[in-house]
């Protein structure tokens, strides 16, 4: 046997032992035997100068990286909508069953760590990324390679994306903190900090693991349910948590959630809820997704930890729209492993309803274990004083006005309003000016007098060099990002303008319908309300925005500075002029590939059947969308005819 053959034998043997130890928790050899074989492999690699792609020696942390590069996921990684009451869960079941009839559900633990996406090609691990915004994440391959609980090679030979949660066991965290120079407060932050640390040796020292729970993409669509996907993950050697239940109907789901809540405190892993998914992928296709969440899954979050603390002060923050939000400073209190010093109250009406006063003791909760929230007064003291509703803006002195339960600053040049508007303009959902933050906005306002979006495009090296912390490299990067942002898609430009009520979904609808800023500026409220995601209030906001001479002049200045929002020209082809809905399971097409094929041939894909739908492509087990199309007399084709149309 030559050295290469022996290396291959050792790699397969060591990977099998690692799988038994880290995934099955059932080692078949003592540690000293594993170490002996590992040392032999390392010696052979040093002598030959070769390291096999799936060698366990690759899992040693390498040199620190300078920065994380961005990576676009093949399929979007959705976050989940949340429920905290049984009524909210029942509403979810009702929505699902209205659309699909009786379906199966799966119930799993919701672990509290960092979502990861791992990519494999031709059976080889090639990349690990964070979820990021769902479409683009950070490449953390170097960090992930230090984790021993996932395979470097798998039997499946196609392209594969799998989803998992990076966690740190509570016992591991406890041991780490015994010798750590800076102890870590909770397992969630420890896991996120381990993966998103530029130094892989820090990742290795914290000993994270990954529990896998989803198949995000396969190059061949052969999975038909969540239960099949989980079985596939196990077959490929991924670590899957033992609790996985298939339920029929909402009552069984709620019983499974109750079992999770009863047992979770005994786990060595931090968990904050249960994840409920529709099992059958065909039903998921019928349900579709919103811009943020899939309609076929929901996370049930367990009741958050609560504590009592004292309100020390209340200040008022001014946001982009001028709305003032009360922010309470409280005596420091530990909740879910974090120290809470501030809590947001919604508005003055919320203060009155909850009877919150400065100097009073209040019940505080980290809502869904994330956002600090005051639930209400716990005890008033002799030092308690009422919180006064502000009459004038604390930042610019302008007289405030009331609208409903909220108070607003009317001054569009109010410093925090301008900073928030600039940050929104430069955000990823807007003009995507990389490296721009609200802190940068405040510096530009205070030192350079920036107040309009268009002012950003008159910045130069000489001006930026006056800002603290802006060296040559940072200046070059910001100017480059601003120049790049001039060529932005129209929907992102509309979002960046900050028109009240225009989010990512509405901005895409407006861009697709009107095609230019000029056409949109001439639209009437009636034109706008006709769109699926535009209500009367939002329509009125759009009309009011474009009727303002000040706003029109600002848009003119942006265009004069070279900003040129564009709409991607629609391709021409057999689907030109068609509004297409895909429903049911297609045997030979992944849903995203079928959608791409339609769009490449001039069509528009819709998520639901409406009066504007002109064509429905119905696969197997097509549900309510097919029924609605039939009732409306819309043309329907099966997969065979769809394939012929593509040819």
Automatic annotation (TrEMBL):
<feature type="binding site">
    <location>
        <position position="165"/>
    </location>
    <ligand>
        <name>NAD(+)</name>
    </ligand>
</feature>
<feature type="active site" description="N6-AMP-lysine intermediate">
    <location>
        <position position="110"/>
    </location>
</feature>
<feature type="binding site">
    <location>
        <position position="301"/>
    </location>
    <ligand>
        <name>NAD(+)</name>
    </ligand>
</feature>
<dbReference type="InterPro" id="IPR033136">
    <property type="entry name" value="DNA_ligase_CS"/>
</dbReference>
<dbReference type="InterPro" id="IPR012340">
    <property type="entry name" value="NA-bd_OB-fold"/>
</dbReference>
<dbReference type="Pfam" id="PF00533">
    <property type="entry name" value="BRCT"/>
</dbReference>
<dbReference type="InterPro" id="IPR013840">
    <property type="entry name" value="DNAligase_N"/>
</dbReference>
<dbReference type="InterPro" id="IPR004150">
    <property type="entry name" value="NAD_DNA_ligase_OB"/>
</dbReference>
<dbReference type="GO" id="GO:0046872">
    <property type="term" value="F:metal ion binding"/>
</dbReference>
<dbReference type="GO" id="GO:0003911">
    <property type="term" value="F:DNA ligase (NAD+) activity"/>
</dbReference>
<keyword id="KW-0234">DNA repair</keyword>
<feature type="binding site">
    <location>
        <position position="277"/>
    </location>
    <ligand>
        <name>NAD(+)</name>
    </ligand>
</feature>
<feature type="binding site">
    <location>
        <begin position="79"/>
        <end position="80"/>
    </location>
    <ligand>
        <name>NAD(+)</name>
    </ligand>
</feature>
<dbReference type="InterPro" id="IPR013839">
    <property type="entry name" value="DNAligase_adenylation"/>
</dbReference>
<dbReference type="InterPro" id="IPR041663">
    <property type="entry name" value="DisA/LigA_HHH"/>
</dbReference>
<dbReference type="InterPro" id="IPR001679">
    <property type="entry name" value="DNA_ligase"/>
</dbReference>
<dbReference type="Pfam" id="PF12826">
    <property type="entry name" value="HHH_2"/>
</dbReference>
<comment type="function">
    <text>DNA ligase that catalyzes the formation of phosphodiester linkages between 5'-phosphoryl and 3'-hydroxyl groups in double-stranded DNA using NAD as a coenzyme and as the energy source for the reaction. It is essential for DNA replication and repair of damaged DNA.</text>
</comment>
<dbReference type="InterPro" id="IPR036420">
    <property type="entry name" value="BRCT_dom_sf"/>
</dbReference>
<dbReference type="InterPro" id="IPR010994">
    <property type="entry name" value="RuvA_2-like"/>
</dbReference>
<dbReference type="InterPro" id="IPR001357">
    <property type="entry name" value="BRCT_dom"/>
</dbReference>
<keyword id="KW-0227">DNA damage</keyword>
<keyword id="KW-0436">Ligase</keyword>
<dbReference type="Pfam" id="PF14520">
    <property type="entry name" value="HHH_5"/>
</dbReference>
<feature type="domain" description="BRCT">
    <location>
        <begin position="570"/>
        <end position="647"/>
    </location>
</feature>
<keyword id="KW-0520">NAD</keyword>
<keyword id="KW-0235">DNA replication</keyword>
<keyword id="KW-0479">Metal-binding</keyword>
<feature type="binding site">
    <location>
        <position position="393"/>
    </location>
    <ligand>
        <name>Zn(2+)</name>
    </ligand>
</feature>
<feature type="binding site">
    <location>
        <position position="409"/>
    </location>
    <ligand>
        <name>Zn(2+)</name>
    </ligand>
</feature>
<comment type="similarity">
    <text>Belongs to the NAD-dependent DNA ligase family. LigA subfamily.</text>
</comment>
<feature type="binding site">
    <location>
        <position position="414"/>
    </location>
    <ligand>
        <name>Zn(2+)</name>
    </ligand>
</feature>
<protein>
    <recommendedName>
        <fullName>DNA ligase</fullName>
        <ecNumber>6.5.1.2</ecNumber>
    </recommendedName>
</protein>
<dbReference type="Pfam" id="PF03120">
    <property type="entry name" value="OB_DNA_ligase"/>
</dbReference>
<feature type="binding site">
    <location>
        <position position="108"/>
    </location>
    <ligand>
        <name>NAD(+)</name>
    </ligand>
</feature>
<feature type="binding site">
    <location>
        <position position="396"/>
    </location>
    <ligand>
        <name>Zn(2+)</name>
    </ligand>
</feature>
<keyword id="KW-0464">Manganese</keyword>
<keyword id="KW-0862">Zinc</keyword>
<feature type="binding site">
    <location>
        <position position="131"/>
    </location>
    <ligand>
        <name>NAD(+)</name>
    </ligand>
</feature>
<dbReference type="GO" id="GO:0006260">
    <property type="term" value="P:DNA replication"/>
</dbReference>
<feature type="binding site">
    <location>
        <begin position="31"/>
        <end position="35"/>
    </location>
    <ligand>
        <name>NAD(+)</name>
    </ligand>
</feature>
<dbReference type="GO" id="GO:0003677">
    <property type="term" value="F:DNA binding"/>
</dbReference>
């Amino acid at each position: 046997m030559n050295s290469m053959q022996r290396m291959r034998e050792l790699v397969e043997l060591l990977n099998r032992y690692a799988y038994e130890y880290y995934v099955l928790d059932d080692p078949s050899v003592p540690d000293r035997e594993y170490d002996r074989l590992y040392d032999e492999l390392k010696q052979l690699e040093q002598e030959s100068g070769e390291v096999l792609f799936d060698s366990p020696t690759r899992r040693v942390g390498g040199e620190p990286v300078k920065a994380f590069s961005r990576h676009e996921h093949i399929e979007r990684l959705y976050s989940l909508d949340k429920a905290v009451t049984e009524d909210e869960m029942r509403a979810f079941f009702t929505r699902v069953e209205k659309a699909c009839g009786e379906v199966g559900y799966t119930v799993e633990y919701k672990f509290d760590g960092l979502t990861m996406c791992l990519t494999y090609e031709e059976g080889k691990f090639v990349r690990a990324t964070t979820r990021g915004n769902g479409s683009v994440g950070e490449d953390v391959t170097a960090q992930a390679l230090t984790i021993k609980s996932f395979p470097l090679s798998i039997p499946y030979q196609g392209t594969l994306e799998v989803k998992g949660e990076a966690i740190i066991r509570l016992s591991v965290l406890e041991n780490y903190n015994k010798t750590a120079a800076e102890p870590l407060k909770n397992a969630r932050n420890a896991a996120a900090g381990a993966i998103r640390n530029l130094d892989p040796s820090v990742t290795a020292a914290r000993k994270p693991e990954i529990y896998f729970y989803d198949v995000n993409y396969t190059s061949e669509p052969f999975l038909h349910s969540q239960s099949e996907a989980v079985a596939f993950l196990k077959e490929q050697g991924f670590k899957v948590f033992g609790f996985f239940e298939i339920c029929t109907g909402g009552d069984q789901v709620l019983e499974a959630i109750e079992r999770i809540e009863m047992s979770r405190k005994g786990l060595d892993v931090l968990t904050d809820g249960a994840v409920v998914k529709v099992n059958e992928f065909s039903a998921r296709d019928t349900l579709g997704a919103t811009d943020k969440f899939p309609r076929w899954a929901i996370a049930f979050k367990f009741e958050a930890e609560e504590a009592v603390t004292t309100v020390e002060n209340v200040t008022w923050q001014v946001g982009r729209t001028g709305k003032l939000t009360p922010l309470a400073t409280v005596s420091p209190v530990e909740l879910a492993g974090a120290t809470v010093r501030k809590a947001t109250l919604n508005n003055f009406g919320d203060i009155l309803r909850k009877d919150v006063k400065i100097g009073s003791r209040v019940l505080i909760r980290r809502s869904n274990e994330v956002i600090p929230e005051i639930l209400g007064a716990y005890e008033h003291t002799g030092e308690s004083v009422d919180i006064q509703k502000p009459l004038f803006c604390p930042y610019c002195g302008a007289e405030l006005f009331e609208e409903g339960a909220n108070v607003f600053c009317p001054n569009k040049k109010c410093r925090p309003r301008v900073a928030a508007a600039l940050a929104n303009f430069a955000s990823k959902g807007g003009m995507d000016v990389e490296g721009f933050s609200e802190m940068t906005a405040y510096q530009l306002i205070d030192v350079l007098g920036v107040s309009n979006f268009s002012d950003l495009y008159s910045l130069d090296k000489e001006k930026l060099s006056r800002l603290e912390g802006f060296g040559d490299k940072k200046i070059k990067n910001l100017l480059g990002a601003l120049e790049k942002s001039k060529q932005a898609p129209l929907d992102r430009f509309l979002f960046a303008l900050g028109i009240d009520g225009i989010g990512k979904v509405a901005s895409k609808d407006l861009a697709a319908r009107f095609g230019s800023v000029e056409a949109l500026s001439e639209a009437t409220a009636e034109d706008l309300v006709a769109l699926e995601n535009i209500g009367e209030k939002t329509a009125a906001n759009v009309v009011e925005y474009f009727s303002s001479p000040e706003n029109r002049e600002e848009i003119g200045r942006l265009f004069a500075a070279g900003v040129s929002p564009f709409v991607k020209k629609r391709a021409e082809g057999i689907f030109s002029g068609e509004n297409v809905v895909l429903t049911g399971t297609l045997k030979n097409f992944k849903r995203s590939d079928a959608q791409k094929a339609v769009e490449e041939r001039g069509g528009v894909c819709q998520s639901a059947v409406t009066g504007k739908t002109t064509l429905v492509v119905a696969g197997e087990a097509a549900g309510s969308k097919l029924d609605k199309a039939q009732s409306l007399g819309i043309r329907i084709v099966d997969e065979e005819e769809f394939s012929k149309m593509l040819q």
